[in-house]
User: Fold these one by one.
Assistant:
Number 1:
Amino acid sequence: MKSLLLAALLAVPAAAQPLDPGERAFFELYKELVETDTTLSAGSCTIAAQQIATRLKAAGFKDSDLTLFATAENPKEGGLVAILQGSDRNTKPILLLAHLDVVEARREDWTRDPFKLVEENGFYYARGTADDKAQAAIWADMLIRYKQSGKAPKRTLKLALTCGEETTNAFNGADWLAKNRPELIAAEYALNEGGGGRLSPEGKPMGMSVQVGEKTVQNFKVEATNPGGHSSVPRPDNAITDLAGAISRINTHEFPVQFNATTTSFFTTMAKMLPAPVNAALPRLIANPEDAEANAIVSKDPQFHSMLRTTCVTTLVSAGHANNALAQRATANVNCRMFPGTDPQALRATLAAVVDNPRVTVSLVPPVRPIATSPPMNPAVIGPMQALAARYFPGVPFVATMSTGATDSIFLSPIGIPTYGVPGFYGESDGNGVHGLNERVRITSVYQGRKYLNELVHLLAD
């Protein structure tokens, strides 16, 4: 997390060590997955899912334990559900979720081939090394090790590897499973991406978190129309002027402060760690979200500002049809990150009221995702995470946080599966190049995260 949370300077992770046989087997799975192009434009999640299914079968999984799925309309965007049956049929399963798809990466832009795993200076470089193929590989490797051990967990473990998380308008496997095969992934709760820690620029651990809830992404079209005319005869009712005013009003509008159980816990913890005046302002704001002075102090941190409210910002603008003509149409895309529980239709009405111009319309842009519902602060799930983190990452602050981004967790809450973003991985202070150039992940973080998550799942499942 890039905020005032990152305060403590602690021990640098140990240097990478030679891989043991189990780590080597994991690495081969991870490498194959990373080097399988799963971009929407040229890749295939279906091939990646089939490769992992082959490895699971070699470990002893039966065909009946594995479900490869894809639709006729999206044959390359398939996924896999694998089930490791537990010994106690009376306990509900745990779902392990990860996505196979990655953001586009052009060879000419990268220093290295984005689809070749390169080990360099203590990092693995390639698209997907961090987002999200490390976790997908760890989950698959974990089921393989369980099967090879001959010892079943008490709880059934389900693995869902899906496509479409990285592209808003693409086929989304998690959404498809929730709507078409909910019984296949039914579970008491799920573990997904979204948690983890951050390292300082010097490589020192700064904090570790579990994600308990996230905002909902929703795009809106803001559009001004006008009959137009010749540019030599300008007039006040100008579509571009109307749109500019609407954009200005939206971009400067401050939505009210809101709290839920996750953010209350997060900011209560932060109040004990941060310097003045934020440490004093936080309890005041929790007690009274309308405290303008406390809000101004806390909201100076951009991450805190976003966690406290719904946010909306203009991201795309298009206007006009000719250099010598008054615009007949001017359009903007407004990207909103809605606080959990926010109804997108109610937000549309709020934006229209903020714009306050009858010549400007505000409409929802598909897809309209489910309304975000934060999972409970379940001590049976979060307690073991925190206790284990204290052992793996001694002295590192541990917090529950709400993501201001978005993951596939949003699709599981409507079918009754609360989903938590697991701790365990450390990310770099610059975000690891995720979604950008030269994506990388610290090698020690991968194997430390693998050990942490393996032990965590054993604690929760056994």
Number 2:
Amino acid sequence: MIEDKIVISLGGSLIIPEEIDVEFLKEFRDLILSKISEGKKFVIITGGGKICRKYNKAAEEISSVENDELDWLGIYSTRFNAEFLKVLFGQNVSKDIIVNPNLPLLFDKSIIVGGGWKPGNSTDLVATLIAKNVGAKTVINLSNTDYVYDKDPNKNADAKKIEKISWAEYRALIPAEWNPGLNSPFDPIASKMAQEEGMTVMTMNGKPINNLANALDGKDFRGTTIH
């Protein structure tokens, strides 16, 4: 069974793949509300997704921009998504979104939301830092991909899914460094910290929503466990 304080890294690809995914967000909201009625508490860190990449791509086409500037565009896109999520959860969510994962967290409400922090850091790292902050040993990483694969499944038809993998094996599959717009199941810096802290990351597709429900209930789920 997962702990009572649950950290979720919610990929922007689920919030706004092209247009805002209203149906997914309704189901996600209903599931989280059902779990807080059972006494669970959640920290949900939102990614930027495609909207972040669109801003970065446009900026690079129009002007000469530094990596830090691209990072800030991404950070504010994640924070906007966090504000959006805060609106959806209404009275159940803390009024301030997290902008610094190292500050003490007060669960005055059952749900806290946050986005990006500062240049050179992804929302995966924010989720990992938050987990360390609140003493959680599990991070649930939701995206639009079912599993971690041994190679990019979008480019390799023979890519094999991985259901369980060690941190050492996983980190050998991904780039050693993070950069703005990197598309990796769980980013390199966050992975290094999660390994050092003895955390488990459960990465899965946010759809269908009952897959996440199974994971929250400690049941078998479709996805990859990294530990």
Number 3:
Amino acid sequence: MIARNEEASIGLAIKSVLALVDEVVVIDTGSQDNTRIIAEGYGARVIDMPWQDDFSAARNIALSEATGDWILVLDADERLQPVRPVEFQRFLSNPSVAGYRIQIVSRRNEKCTQTFQLVRLFRNHPEVRYRYPIHEQIIPSLNVWAEEQGMVVADSPIVVLHEGYFQNRTAEKRDRNLRILRKAISTFPDEAYFEYQIACETLVRLDDEMLPVAGMNSALMSLERAWQKIQRLSLPERERLAYGPDLVAKISACRLARDCVPQARQIVHEGRELYGDHPVLLLQSAASECRYLLDFADQLDASERAKLLNSVRRDIHVLHSTNLAHLAVPTDERYRTLYPLRYLGELALLEGKVGEAAELFEKALTVDSSYSFAWLGLAECARFAGDRKRALKLYLRTVTENEWNHRAWLRGCSLLEELEFHDNAASWRRKVALHFPEHPLAANLVQQDELTEPWLLTSG
């Protein structure tokens, strides 16, 4: 492992593997706390290395120092879940396997656990080394070497629990990552991966939607440049990109945030031609199709509408039955348990089945009582049924649960205008204009208020 100022967690990380490994190698990149003392106390060999804004360089120094036949890679804020030594040895004794993908379970908070797969257990060979200065990858060199040796990279049931970064280090981590990514884009101009990653660092997301806050348009440009670079690759190379589905989904989500619904649908269609029924694409397809059905209802005949509705239901059914643990990009359980309920509710509402829609949104709230899009769905049900006062209360509940639900602010604003609560509507418009400046309606909302609220011209 590599570590810096990890005294709070490194002891547990090392302790979790002591029954299985012959040695522990820690590269310390400049700790100023008790990281070294704790690691050495557990028998680790600690090697000092000045930090050079290059994760692969640090990882590869650790690999060059390791003497075992196999490498197990952990971060200092991770713990290997218990595994029987005899079972672990069975993996290492398989002569046909060059490396194993293990499951990383990342706890973001009490309600959100992400599970994905990474290669963290592999044979020790000088040709197998990490690449890229950030979001470093072992799989490119491991795949080449494994193919030369007639070996494969296989799945395993091994689980590593990732506790994540402390909150007071989030900004520091983000600034560091952006600095390295900008340098990497200059160093590797044809590599799509870094354009994708710099967008991931800057985008702001609310559950399964992108938010049109400041910087979203710039991030979208990075994503679209990454997609253009991917198109230059051969078809097999494109199909092997683990981050490809997530890249496509993010482009589509950003386009939806800008109300570019046909373009959002198009990129999802392109992505599914490459990556099939990947969970993030199934969900994003449901999102874009629901918006299309809502915004372009008057342009669809009955057969087209029925076909789209059935297609979305089929995608949600497949999503609900998908095993998320085998993905290379973090995807949490809400993709299977919570988000499908939202879109099934939206489909029911599009068909005028208000009672069914309300039941689905209520069911979503039993999964997560703070899920703002379920509260928004109930508001839409009340509005559809003609109960505007209840709808307004539910819009208020939605933004109380999460003030970043821009759809609730916009829908609530329109209802306030209907009810002729013009002062309140102006307040809600200001909220959208100031907090979601890259929403297509933001400029118009500011102009509306400038007619009656000149102070907005000089406010913050």
Number 4:
Amino acid sequence: MRGRLLLVAGVVAVLLPTPASASAAARTPAHRAGAAVTVEHLMFMPGKVEVGLGESVTWTFPEVTQHTTTSDQGIWDSGARSAGATYARAFTSAGTFAYHCSFHPTMRGSVAVGLQVTDPSPSIRAVRWSTVKGAGGTTFDVQVKVGSARWRDFRTDTTKPKAKIAVGSDPVKVRARTSSGGQDSGWSKAVRLA
């Protein structure tokens, strides 16, 4: 009986949000577990997808015509795929990642990956922009904005995957940089910290 009561209490605790988790959920957009893109008729469908940090995008290539999903920044390349083949990639850092088909340059798409924000205290927010520390030439630029002022650098070329930021800094955005492709991702969607 005691075991059942503990199980029920644990389920209730998981289902009922605390005030801190409720406010964090309001800032961090909800995403389904990854996204699916179909590659056919000379298009990526849908052409723009959003995933959460660490989630995957799976591309399916149902046609006999060969296509690729190739990062504009040189981060990934599926190679030629067709006849029902798939390619999946987990997105470990926030940003907006443009891609194309190497065989058909007019075929373009993008993957937007959001930041994770939690509330360790009323005045501090823990902001995570990557699931792993930057390595192999990958770094991150983080910017914050206070009021109507211009965006300012919070971190530049950092390999750190997260930081604590004061609530007065509002909002925050990030982009990934890669030395292998020599390009940056686009900025992530800005997330409000207040």
